Structure formats: C-alpha cells, structure tokens
C-alpha cells in the first residue's frame, strides 16, 4: 500500500499551515486576545483624553490624540487580523526560502513516510507523529520534535486520499479538522 506523490508547494499552502499552527497553540490565541484587550484599553484611554481635550478646548492635545487614535486604530486592525499575519509570514518565507519552491517527493508507507526536497530528506515513523490536521486544502503533519510537514490535498486522487486516511487510522492517528 505504498504510494509516491510529487508536488510543488504553493504560497497558499504555507498560509493555510500558518493558520493551522496558530489555531493549534492556545498560548498564541491567548496572546492575541490579551493584545486586543490592551489595545481596547489604550484606545479607550485616548478617547477619554479626547473628550477631556474637547471639554477644555485644548487644540494641541486634541490634534495629538486624533493622530494617536488613527495610528492605534490601524495597529488594532492589523493585530486583530490573523489573516494579515499569515499573508505577511507567507510572503517572507516565500522570499527567503528558495528551496520551498523546489519539488517535494512524499512516499507514504504503512509504517512511515518519507518527505524529500532539494535540501532535506526526512524518514518519519508514524509512531513519532504528534498530530495530523486536515483543512480544506492541506494535511498538516506535526512530528513530536515539532517539525511540521505540509502535504497538499490536490496531489491525491480520491482513492489515494482514502488510502492515506486508512494508513493513518491503522497507526492510531486521529485526523483533526483545522
């Protein structure tokens, strides 16, 4: 039941893998929520300062507060939008990681899989896999040592994808939805 599949990763694959990774780490979600609260408090403080400046007819403070509100509202929109960060990280990785654009060969067997590209070859036993997350377009495989592997769903036929899921199930690996 071994299968060999070859593919080239696309930027969308990376973007989706960043989303899965972010959603799988509670501390990243909690940090994002904390940052949102800090920004809300700070913008609330600036709004109170603006009201104070309006009451006291302080034009200089009013102008500085307006500028600060504009900047922090923009920052809040960027920080609160994970999609923006996924796109930014993808663009960065795609620019500096030239090897990421090279073809990848994945060989899937009953007891292991081999992930090979221009700069590495990993032979991974299924027993060392921490998790497999399936999204709309990729399988995101995480090794216990925190290495991760992206396998696009577009490379599978319907028969191959069922065989892949059977191999995972036979190795007691549950597929999480991402």
Core attributes:
single chain, alpha+beta, four-stranded antiparallel beta sheet, four-stranded mixed beta sheet
Distance between the termini: 27 Å
Estimated helix fraction: 40-55%
Structural class: alpha+beta
Radius of gyration equals 23 Å
**What are the segments in which pLDDT stays under 50 over at least 5 consecutive residues?**
none
Annotation field: number of helices: 5
Strand content: 15-25%
Sequence of strands across the biggest β-sheet: 1-2-3-4
Bulk shape: elongated
Q: What does the largest sheet look like? A: 4 strands, antiparallel
Oligomer category: single chain
Q: Give the total of beta strands.
A: 8
Please write the string of helix (H) and strand (E) elements.
Answer: EHHHHEEEEEEHE
Can you describe this structure?
The protein starts with a strand and ends with a strand. The mean pLDDT is 88. The chain is of the alpha+beta class and 178 residues long. The strands form 2 sheets. It has a 4-stranded antiparallel sheet, with no helix packed on it. Strands 7-6-5-8 form a 4-stranded mixed sheet. Helix content is 52%, strand content 24%. A hairpin with a 3-residue loop joins β5 (129-134) and β6. The longest helix has 30 residues, at 26-55. The protein has helices spanning 11-24, 26-55, 59-79, 82-96, 158-170, and strands spanning 3-8, 103-108, 112-116, 121-125, 129-134, 138-143, 148-152, 175-177.
């Amino acid at each position: 039941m071994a299968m060999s599949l070859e593919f080239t990763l696309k930027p969308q694959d990376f973007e989706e893998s960043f989303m899965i990774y972010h959603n799988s780490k509670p501390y990243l979600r909690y940090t994002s929520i904390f940052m949102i609260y800090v920004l809300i408090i700070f913008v609330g403080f600036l709004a109170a300062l603006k009201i104070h400046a309006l009451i006291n007819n302080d034009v200089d403070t009013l102008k500085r507060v307006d500028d600060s509100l504009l900047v922090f509202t923009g920052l809040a929109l960027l920080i609160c939008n994970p999609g923006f960060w996924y796109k930014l990280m993808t663009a960065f990785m795609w620019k500096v990681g030239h090897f990421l654009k090279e073809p990848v060969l994945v060989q899937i067997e009953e007891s292991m899989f081999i992930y090979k590209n221009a700069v590495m070859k990993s032979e991974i036993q299924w027993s060392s896999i921490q998790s497999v997350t399936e999204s709309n377009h990729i399988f995101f495989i995480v090794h216990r040592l925190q290495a991760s592997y992206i396998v696009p769903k577009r490379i599978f036929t319907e028969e191959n994808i069922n065989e892949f899921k059977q191999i995972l199930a036979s190795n007691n690996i549950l597929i999480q939805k991402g």
